[in-house]
Amino acid sequence: MVLKPLGRRNDKRKITLLSLNKLSYISKAACIGAAVSAIAACSSTPSTPLAGVKTHTLSNAVVYQTSSKEYPVLSSFVYNQAIAALPTRFADGDVVVMDVDETVLDNSTYQKERESVGLGYSSKSWADWVKREEATLVPGVAAFIDEVVARNGKVALITNRNKALDSHTWNNLLAQGLPLTTSNTCVVGRTAEDKEAVGQEGMVNDKDLRRMQLTEGKIACSNTSKDATSTWAMPHTIIMQIGDNIEDVGGVTQESANVELLMPRVGTEIFILPNPMYGSW
């Protein structure tokens, strides 16, 4: 029996097996690579809370107003100073004039909602927000108003919200648990007449007409009766002005305000709250 050499055949078989094993490895590696690429592609796709809605970074001003510890400290400090400046008991006809937005009611939620979707202020969105009646209180204001009422005082809320929205403003204020009544509080929004009065004698900014009407007993409070028996149908003396804008002070504008001349009244008659989100500046 003649034995044939098998070495070459075995070598071919080994080569074939090695080639098959190598192809199998390469195929597996290719599959794994494709899977990893697919996962990487998915993970690199920007995620959004809702499909088609892009998230936007909030401005530093809104972050400061909504998240910083400095804002409530400063606001509370201003109101503590205002409490210290109140008379022990108000004389008949004495009144504190206050702005509403960012002075009594905190609307930073509105600002945050708008900025988070890349939008700014609009008259319609603002009116919709006011109608929601969801604004919260500015830090420190509740204690201040409590003291005013406890000392037989009155508050005139002269706001540049449209007067047509005054009922929503009033409802929002009451919902926050403030001790307000139609006898101790007057809410009066802005009308076209207020804007048109600017430039007339004694009318420097668009709240001056309402301040004058208050001192003359002619203020048109939206939340009170209009008859002559109303506690607001009499001349009033403004003893304090509080707001987040220099134009919440009578007879001045952002452009004309002389800080040096105003300073002797600041801390006794004038109190300004921080608001980096918006203003007349």
Number of domains in the coordinates?
1
Strand arrangement within the widest β-sheet reads 5-4-1-6-7
Oligomer: single chain
- Major sheet characteristics: 5 strands, parallel
- Proportion of residues in helical segments: 40-55%
One letter per element, helices H and strands E, the order comes to: HHHEEHHEHEHEHHEHE
CATH superfamily: HAD superfamily/HAD-like
| Number of DSSP-assigned strands | 7
CATH topology: the name is Rossmann fold
Description:
There is one protein chain. With 281 residues, this protein is of the alpha/beta class. It has one domain (60-272): Rossmann fold (3-Layer(aba) Sandwich). The protein has 10 helices and 7 strands. The chain has helices at 7-43, 60-67, 70-85, 108-116, 123-132, 141-150, 166-175, 192-197, 208-216, 259-262, and strands at residues 94-98, 105-106, 136-137, 155-162, 185-190, 237-243, 270-272. The strands form 2 sheets. A 5-stranded parallel sheet has the order 5-4-1-6-7, sandwiched between helices. Strands 2-3 form a two-stranded antiparallel ribbon. Helix 2 crosses helix 4 (108-116) and helix 3 runs parallel beside helix 6. It is globular, with a radius of gyration of 34 Å. The chain starts with 6 loop residues before the first helix and ends in a 9-residue tail after the last strand.
